Amino acid sequence: MIRDVRDLGVLQLDALREVANIGAGHAATALSQLTNRRIWVDVPEIRIAPLEQVPELLGRADEVVATVVMLVLGDLAGRTIQIFPAATATRLISILLGREVTGFPDELGEMELSALKEAGNILASAYLTALSDFLGLILLTSIPSLALDDASSTLTGGLLDQAESMEYVFCIDTRFRMNEQDPPVSGHFLLVPEADSLPLILRAIRLA
């Protein structure tokens, strides 16, 4: 029986990657239906890392990002953190609102912020639904909250540092394409389970 996330093998990681891809497909469908435009979402990589290594996984620590946070409730406890770099945030807002949006983050108003929350909510719900189906567990989420700050401050100044009982992060790199001509933009979905919930995930990976 696998008891430590560091002991996950290729088969277990492939299974988690497939779950992430299913979640990405659900997210793409939901975003496409919401905007009446085709949106592709895929997962180039899934990583599992200690909490303290998360900032360096996400690139430049001084880059201002949009971060949507939701608590995970139900059979597992923890939180999800959806990180949108500036290019991704403005592209998603433009698509959701049907008009060009620039000036991130200073020129974002209530409608723009609400659109980002909705995008984060859709993505987190899609990934968690896929994970719930795979694990056979009930997963619920709180109302999303949004922060606009540099990546380092966001992660170490109030989101992850509050998670004293959380040890490991599942990081799902997410790539968005709004049409076939434009290059993709990227984001990061983090699932941060509390330490007591991690064994439930490991036991539920049926390939263990």
What does this structure look like?
The protein has helices at about 10-35, 55, 85-95, 110-135, 150-160, 200-205; strands at about 40-50, 65-75, 80-85, 140, 145-150, 170-175, 185-195. The longest helix is centred in the N-terminal third of the chain and has 26 residues, at about 10-35. The mean pLDDT is about 80. The chain is built from 6 helices and 7 strands. It starts with 9 loop residues before the first helix and ends with a helix.
What features would you highlight for this structure?
alpha+beta, Chemotaxis protein chec, 7-stranded antiparallel beta sheet, 6 helices, 7 strands, 40% helix
Which secondary structure elements does this structure contain, and how are they paired or packed?
Elements: H1 10-35, E1 40-50, H2 54-57, E2 64-74, E3 78-85, H3 86-97, H4 110-135, E4 139-141, E5 145-150, H5 151-159, E6 168-177, E7 185-193, H6 198-204
Antiparallel strand pairs: 1-6, 2-3, 2-4, 2-5, 3-7, 6-7
Provide a quick synopsis of the model.
The protein has 208 residues and is of the alpha+beta class. Helix content is 40%, strand content 28%.
